[in-house]
Amino acid sequence: MFEAFHIYKYMGDLDEYTLNIYTDGSGKWHPMRGGVGVVFVFPEICKRDLILKELQRYSGANIAQMELQACLVGLKEILKFNDLEGVQAITFWVDRQEIPDNYTKAIYVWPNSKPPWYRSNGAPVMNAQLWKDLVREMNKVYNNFHIRVTFKWIKGHDGHEFNSIANRLAKSSADKPVQKPIMKISEVNVRKKLFDNKVKRGSVKMNGQKIIIRITTGELLPQKIWKYQYEVLSEKSQFYKLSDIIYFSENLRAGHVFEITCNKNQNFPQISKIIRELDKELYKK
């Protein structure tokens, strides 16, 4: 058995009427997998004992997805309680700034964008299904307990006791041996890169240029558009060997090589046109 949830008694530096929940997610490669950690800190007025649960491992998941999934797990666990007598607020503490910055957009803005679940700069919202699930579970918590949920940022790896515990739980979760069917967060096709450069968003400038790229990962987003990680194989390009992210409406197989035309929108990099597919055997190391 692994410990998935720890519930601690009220600590004096926390609001005496707030249920504070510390979450963290982890992502690892080879194979691509993730884990979550959740720590419940109840106010003193709630008489709760230690809760232990077996950790779940998630396959095909990255850190951003696991950070959201950890919040989802925490919300679903709240719904298992019969009551939250004395609790007046619920605060999630996360070390990924994206969640506090954007959870209200997931409620009010992104569902009503045209088309839905696209950002104001034209780019699709990443992990849209997880954001939708988060809003759904927040609404359930409010309907059950009439308590609103908020998300706040806490600096990670800064010695905070509960954040550190959540981090350790998340790492343990990701490393759990496969003993049960594992949950798949997303379908991602992955191929080993030819070069050692890490994926860096915006490293390849979108100037409408023609370049040769090799697809290293492909993921179909809920918006029905494909998100690709790729590396540049055009030796004369200033971006040669760099790895970045680009979007396209069609499915391109990971590991295959294409000559493409880029668009000119750095905020939403897209393949404007597939000129031709090239023999991938010619580009092996």
Q: Regarding CATH, which class of the largest domain? A: Alpha Beta
Query: What structural class results from the helix and strand content?
Result: alpha/beta
Radius of gyration: 21 Å
- State the order of secondary-structure elements, H for helix, E for strand: EEEEHEHHEHEEEEEEE
Q: What number of structural domains do the residues give?
A: 2
CATH architect. name of the largest domain? 2-Layer Sandwich
At the fold tier of CATH, the topology name of the largest domain is Nucleotidyltransferase, domain 5
Number of helices, counting only DSSP H or I runs of 4 residues or more: 4
Shape: elongated
**pLDDT < 50 runs, ≥5 residues:** 6-12
Give the % helix: 10-25%
Major sheet, described briefly? 7 strands, mixed
Name the CATH homologous superfamily of the largest domain.
Ribonuclease H-like superfamily/Ribonuclease H
What's the count of strands? 13
How much of the sequence lies in strands comes to 25-35%
- Report the average pLDDT across residues: 87
Instruction: Kindly report how far apart the N and C termini lie.
Output: 44 Å
Can you offer a commentary on this structure?
- A hairpin with an 8-residue loop joins β12 and β13 (271-278).
- The protein is α/β, with parallel strands linked by helices.
- Residues 6-12 have low confidence and may be disordered.
- 21% of the residues lie in helices and 28% in strands.
- The chain has two domains: 5-184, Nucleotidyltransferase, domain 5; 188-283, OB fold (Dihydrolipoamide Acetyltransferase, E2P) (Beta Barrel).
